[in-house]
């Protein structure tokens, strides 16, 4: 017997998502009526993406230099090139990492105990797009590691490929979590860029999920986080125009402060949901994430996908709290995992294999519109959709267990 799709209404403790809540920041691509800020902030109304959204991770996908999969090394992550490639696909947003410097003017916490920003604004207060805390480059035959926020903008842009023909940048390398070092080589390379350049050079119909990155090994004072966020907001307000924007951060204080500093754009709390343990307990579970959001007036949660499958009941609690939920993680590059989340009521995914996953999502969106009745796994193992299947509780439990075991293997 072919395995069929599971609908969220058939799952115990997974409520239906509200149909009447919409984000004020959506425009042409989502083709939905916008709610006012006051409506969006009404706790009874809630907060919801008007359709299942797909976001490109660092543009068209992150670079995994140690991977045998050439798709993970096809195009420089967090570059104008990658963002513009993504904008040609039926993506709703691209996600990228903004970093800002920790100027001597402010300090967040005791510096010897430390937490530093990935939200990188350079030493001269220019927000730049870069994921890692440190840049690793070769200089006179020696590998030198430099903190991004200790660099001026000119120094930051001197690494890697250069805008001007004939200029040669410092050769880039990258260190993995386990300490291995790889030369940062991709099939299509591109220069680094600033937040302002991204606003100016990327199609304005493409939404931005701006991740405010902070170093887990540094502790900050509130004044320093505020300064960094204000520098970023200045660029956003000057260049956003009608673009759809959302902010997200693993740093709970940064997310909460961003919500206090502005109410124009939604703010989401990023969490590993217990996949990794931190000294800040607010980062260690989905229930703690719910508490951060509800107490701080945030609009939603971005969770590591494995945490959601380990604790599917949390989806119900998140919905009951009138919060949106989207996920990230390499398992989101598997079409069946994405489709199962859609059925569970999760509102979107951040993915690396943008072309493959947007094709999958387009198929099940179209099938839902047409009312087709298809099985989950069709010919050649591709995801297909059955709009409202009926299953026994044993079959439903089996599918959730299968997906959960798959993504943890």
TrEMBL record:
Record keywords, A-Z: Glycerol metabolism, Hydrolase
Record bears the keyword Lyase: no
Keyword Amino-acid biosynthesis among record annotations: no
InterPro entries listed in its UniProt record: GDPD (IPR051578), GP_PDE_dom (IPR030395), PLC-like_Pdiesterase_TIM-brl (IPR017946)
Reactions mediated catalytically: a sn-glycero-3-phosphodiester + H2O = an alcohol + sn-glycerol 3-phosphate + H(+)
Enzyme Commission designation: 3.1.4.46
Identification of the protein by name: glycerophosphodiester phosphodiesterase
Species: Dovyalis caffra
Phylogenetic placement of the source organism: Eukaryota, Viridiplantae, Streptophyta, Embryophyta, Tracheophyta
């Amino acid at each position: 017997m072919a395995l069929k799709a599971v609908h969220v209404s058939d799952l115990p403790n997974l409520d239906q998502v509200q149909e009447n809540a919409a984000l004020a920041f959506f425009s042409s691509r989502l083709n939905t009526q916008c709610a006012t800020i006051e409506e969006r902030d009404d706790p009874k109304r809630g907060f919801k993406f008007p359709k299942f959204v797909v976001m490109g991770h660092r543009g068209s996908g992150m670079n995994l230099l140690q991977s045998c999969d050439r798709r993970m090394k096809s195009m420089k992550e967090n570059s104008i090139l990658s963002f513009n490639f993504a904008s040609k696909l039926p993506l709703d947003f691209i996600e990228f990492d903004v970093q800002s410097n920790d100027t001597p003017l402010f300090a967040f916490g005791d510096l010897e105990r430390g937490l530093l920003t990935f939200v990188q604004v350079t030493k001269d207060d220019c927000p730049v797009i870069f994921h890692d805390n440190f840049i690793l480059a070769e200089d006179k035959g020696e590998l030198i590691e430099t903190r991004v926020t200790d660099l001026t903008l000119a120094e930051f842009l001197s690494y890697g490929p250069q805008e001007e023909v004939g200029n040669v940048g410092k050769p880039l390398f990258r260190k993995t979590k386990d300490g291995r070092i790889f030369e940062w080589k991709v099939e299509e390379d591109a220069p680094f860029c600033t937040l302002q350049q991204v606003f100016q050079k990327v199609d304005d119909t493409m939404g931005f999920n701006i991740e405010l990155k902070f170093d887990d090994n540094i502790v900050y004072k509130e004044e320093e986080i505020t300064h960094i966020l204000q520098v970023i907001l200045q660029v956003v307000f000057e260049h956003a125009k009608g673009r759809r924007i959302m902010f997200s951060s693993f740093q709970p204080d940064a997310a909460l402060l961003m919500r206090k500093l502005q109410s124009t754009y939604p703010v989401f709390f990023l969490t590993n949901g217990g996949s990794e343990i931190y000294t800040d307990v607010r980062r260690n579970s989905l229930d703690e994430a719910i508490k951060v959001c509800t107490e701080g007036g945030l609009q939603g949660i971005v969770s590591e996908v494995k945490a959601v499958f380990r604790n599917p009941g949390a989806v119900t609690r998140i919905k009951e709290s009138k919060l949106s939920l989207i996920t990230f993680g390499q398992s989101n590059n598997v079409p069946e995992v994405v489709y199962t989340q859609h059925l569970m009521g999760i509102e979107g995914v951040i993915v690396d294999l943008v072309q493959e996953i947007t094709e999958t999502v387009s198929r099940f969106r179209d099938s839902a519109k047409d009312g087709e009745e298809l099985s989950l796994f069709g010919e050649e193992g591709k995801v297909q959709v059955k709009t409202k299947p009926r299953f026994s509780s044993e079959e439903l439990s089996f599918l959730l267990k299968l997906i959960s075991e798959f993504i943890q293997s």
